[in-house]
């Protein structure tokens, strides 16, 4: 049974009610995802993490399609969410429609690898955007500072 009407019925977003419980559930799931990822980064260097079984494929595809993207820099949310940006990301994401669960589910993404999740430094993104950007940040060691901050007595691993 569908929450939005009879099975097979289409949802017209212009006529849809605001489902407060659904919004709350979505917010809870986003916060859980954000908290879990941060906790993982505190326990392991990002440069040693694999976020999916397809990390290599996602990274190579991302670097090919978004060669100009610098994972060290703050994300330009306006550019990412512009008409052209949305189209580029949509094309990128569709390659994972049948490969990655919840590939188009909304989540939170830090706009810069230099900061923690805060209201000012966090943007809404799709799951594949999160994976592509965070895999690139991890590959380049940009999230290792989180682990190192939690483990100050441990010598920095340069391997």
Describe this structure in words.
With 159 residues, the protein is mostly helical. It is 45% helix and 6% strand. The chain has six helices and two strands, in the order H-H-H-H-E-E-H-H. The protein has helices at residues 20-43, 55-65, 77-80, 83-94, 127-139, 144-150; strands spanning 106-110, 122-126. It has a two-stranded antiparallel sheet with strand order 1-2. Helix 1 (20-43) crosses helix 6 and helix 2 (55-65) crosses helix 5 (127-139). It is globular, with a radius of gyration of 18 Å. It starts with 19 loop residues before the first helix and ends in a 9-residue tail after the last helix. Residues 1-7 have low confidence and may be disordered.
State the secondary-structure class.
mainly alpha
What is the global morphology?
Answer: globular
Strand content: 5-15%
Number of helices: 6
| Helix-strand pattern | HHHHEEHH
Q: Kindly report the spatial arrangement of strands forming the biggest sheet.
A: 1-2
Rg over C-alpha atoms, rounded to the nearest angstrom: 18 Å
DSSP summary, beta strand count: 2
């Amino acid at each position: 049974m569908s929450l939005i009407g009879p099975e097979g019925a289409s949802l017209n977003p212009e006529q849809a009610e605001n489902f407060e419980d659904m919004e709350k559930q979505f917010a809870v799931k986003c916060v859980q995802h954000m908290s879990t990822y941060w906790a993982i980064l505190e326990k392991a260097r990002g440069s040693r993490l694999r976020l999916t079984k397809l990390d290599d494929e996602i990274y190579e595809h991302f670097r090919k399609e978004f060669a100009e993207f610098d994972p060290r820099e703050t994300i330009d949310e306006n550019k990412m969410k512009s008409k052209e940006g949305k189209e580029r990301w949509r094309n990128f994401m569709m390659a994972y429609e049948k490969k990655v669960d919840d590939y188009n589910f909304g989540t939170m993404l830090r706009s810069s690898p230099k900061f923690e999740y805060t209201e000012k430094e966090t943007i809404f993104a799709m799951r594949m955007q999160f994976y592509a950007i965070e895999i690139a940040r991890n590959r380049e060691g940009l999230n290792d500072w989180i682990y190192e901050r939690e483990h100050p007595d441990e010598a920095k691993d340069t391997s």
